[in-house]
């Protein structure tokens, strides 16, 4: 019991001396042992690494899951160590909606068939998105989170211990300065040597941990490469899905003419939906089997013909002609030209135009 009391008294005295030293330093009444420049630089680098790792991680989570409520739910399930319930994402929900609508209007109709095809593609996009999010979470977010919750916590713990050892060292220096009698001075010198030794050992431990930040950066760089690879694969997959969908929808304008008992040219043009123009100006290719008899007739003849433009088209080069939906231009076949293109004229303007964007007029 007596030993425990003495131990508690000693601990209380140590805490009190640390508090006094800390307070006097803040008030400018006591000197403070400064860390060497290399250690200070390492500490600053570790702080910056922690700050930006957290920020990049949070922003990546926003990109992968924009809905804050869902992010909070995922966080709670993770903390409770429970499996997150499977749910359809927005692309999949849209796909299901389109498919149901397509079956309602009839798969045999142009609109119903187009809705079903679009819905199937949206579901493919949803599946690709889930794979991308899963891959990014494992290969990118998890290593970042492990650093914050593991390595950096260890660094922070040792750094706090270094601060305590530094306060003990400076308190010992202060007691030595105040010692007047020989016995007190001898005891203070012994205490100072011990405090200096413990401080130096803790500084070395902290330095070794902080130098490991370079390895952390190298690991995070590999994770960043994995994330970029996953993004590239995801966007390439989505692009391919949309290009395939464009090709499937490319045959629908001709089908619309027989839908709803052959509507007039104006109503047909109004319901024809142009495929989206991609940055690479991909034009839906029309195979020879899909070419209309009038286009085949134009290729075999040498005279110009009038044609109605079905969709807007932005020229990808100076050799092409930009088009506006519903305008009428003159087209002709040029020997040696690609079978998917015709030569178009509008007043004094002339250039190549894609045949899939045209409807020949009698």
SSE run:
HHHHHHHHHHEEEEE
CA radius of gyration: 37 Å
- How confident is the prediction overall: mean pLDDT? 82
The helical percent reads: 55-70%
Overall shape:
elongated
Largest sheet, in brief, is: 5 strands, antiparallel
Structural class: alpha+beta
Enumerate the strands of the largest sheet in spatial order, edge to edge or round the barrel: 4-3-2-1-5
> What would you call the quaternary organization?
single chain
Strand % is 5-15%
User: How many helical elements?
Assistant: 10
Number of strands: 5
Distance between the termini: 112 Å
Low-pLDDT stretches are 254-291
Q: Describe it for me?
A:
- The chain is an alpha+beta fold.
- It is built from ten helices and five strands, in the order H-H-H-H-H-H-H-H-H-H-E-E-E-E-E.
- Strands 4-3-2-1-5 form a five-stranded antiparallel sheet, with helices on one face.
- Helix 5 packs antiparallel against helix 7 (213-249).
- The protein is elongated and about 120 Å long.
- The N and C termini lie far apart (112 Å).
Task: Describe the structure concisely.
The protein has 362 residues and is α+β, with helices and mostly antiparallel strands. Helices cover 65% and strands 7% of the residues. It has helices spanning 2-26, 37-64, 68-79, 90-105, 110-178, 182-211, 213-249, 252-256, 265-271, 293-300; strands at residues 305-309, 328-332, 341-346, 349-354, 358-360.
